[in-house]
Amino acid sequence: MKIHILGASCAGSTTLGNALSSQLNIPYFDTDSFFWEKSAVPYTLKRDPLLRNQLLKDELNKANNYIVGGSLVSWGEEWKNMFDLAIFLYLPKEIRMERLVKRELERYGNAIYDDPQRHQLFLDFINWASKYDDRSFTGRNIGIHENWLDGLNCKVIKIEGDTTVAERLRRIVEVLDLS
Known about the structure:
Blueprint lengths: L1 E6 L5 H12 L3 E3 L1 H4 L13 H13 L4 E4 L15 E6 L2 H16 L2 H4 L1 H14 L12 H9 L4 E6 L4 H12 L3
Helix pairs in contact: 4-6
């Protein structure tokens, strides 16, 4: 089973990916680990697209089954044929933004407010993430994800609303008929 989980920032892709990985006993790979270079200031140095794609492919080639969490929409058309199942998570903006602030506080503490560089990165990230529901936004948005999903050559599950991880897992297991 090859699964792709995607949605807006803080929709729960990583949380669900890790939980599904544990339940199905297959590896989970987060696109952020391949998209971003490790750097002194995290999430600021993008990896070369050819290298990031190859690094992820190399990891996936080691596994018969896998879960990839995060958006692949700008990674190339070849990714549309890599999955047996795609899971799209959608949460209302207010919930996503609340989660995003909480996550940034957990990662960086008060530096998101006190450190000028981290504060600006925080504001930029909030601004970018808040535009997900705006289909005219040129960055990642719901329309881009919907178009991506329409072009996939696999089954798609859409899970909308603030459901628990257990509820999401139950729905996926039902679709996969693993009960």
